[in-house]
Amino acid sequence: MRKEGFQFVIVGLPNVGKSSVMRALTNAEPLVSDYPFTTREPCVGMTEVCGAQAQVVDTPAIGSSEFDRGLVNNADCLLLVLNSLDQIKQVEDACLTSRAQRIYVFNKVDLLSAEQARKLEARLRSMRLEFALVSALKEEGFNELKEEMFNKMGVIRVYTKEPGKSRSEVPMLLPRGSVVRDAAEKILKGLSSRVKEARVTGPSAKFPNQRVGLAHELKDMDVIELRTS
After folding, report:
1. How confident is the model at residue 60, as a pLDDT?
2. Are the beta carbons of 141 and 179 closer than 8 angstroms?
């Protein structure tokens, strides 16, 4: 299977709703049924995660002869789909050899009362797990899940702006920790030496339109304006 960009791999026990989560997240059309081991081979799709594209792969269930441990080991981040706290150990045991990051995705929370959902969330926080509570059936909780996914991708969104104009509609994606020089290299195709002045508005700036140097570290959702010679 060809890995395209940042890859999330969905892992879970039979009948937890992995394929339903996959369908809610991506453009893929996995087979969904009430029978265990419906997924016989990996299903691949793409999703937009807060402005960034990512690959998502649904795997055959843990315990299936088709469960792909190699795919799990090579993932950038695992989406561990669960229905209860009791399933955590079994799912973690199946992923022991993987060094991938993890997000614990509790599906079917529409079956819980408000009090049960509150207690589940409190318990997960006490365990210091990164998680999302979703209902694939009602397509609820996926904005929060995508925010967790974006945090795992290690990138920031930086908008560009020409003098006297509005910022770009589509952000540029840069590795977390990037500085103005990195953005200039990408914008000017390796000619950052042409930058005579850089201004930033956003989380990394002390005030709007702050003049900064090429070594200034950018943050997510910054807007950068470059003036060149």
Report:
1. 92
2. no
pLDDT for res 90: 96
Kindly state the tokens that stand for 18: 């992995």
Query: 155-228: CATH homologous superfamily?
Result: Beta-grasp domain (3.10.20.30)
Encode pLDDT of 23-55 as tens digits: 999 976 655 445 444 556 888 999 999 988 899
Q: What is the CATH number of domain 6-153?
A: 3.40.50.300
Taking the CA atoms of residue 136, residue 139, residue 141 and residue 146 in that order, the dihedral angle to the nearest 10 degrees is 90
Q: Which residue has the tokens 């150990």?
A: 89
Sheet of 172-175, strand order: 172-175, 155-161, 222-228, 195-201, 210-212
pLDDT of residue 181: 95
Residue boundaries of the structural domains of the chain:
6-153, 155-228
DSSP string, 110-121: GGS-HHHHHHHH
Question: Other CB atoms closer than 10 Å to residue 17's CB: what's the count?
Answer: 22
Q: pTM (2 decimals)?
A: 0.85
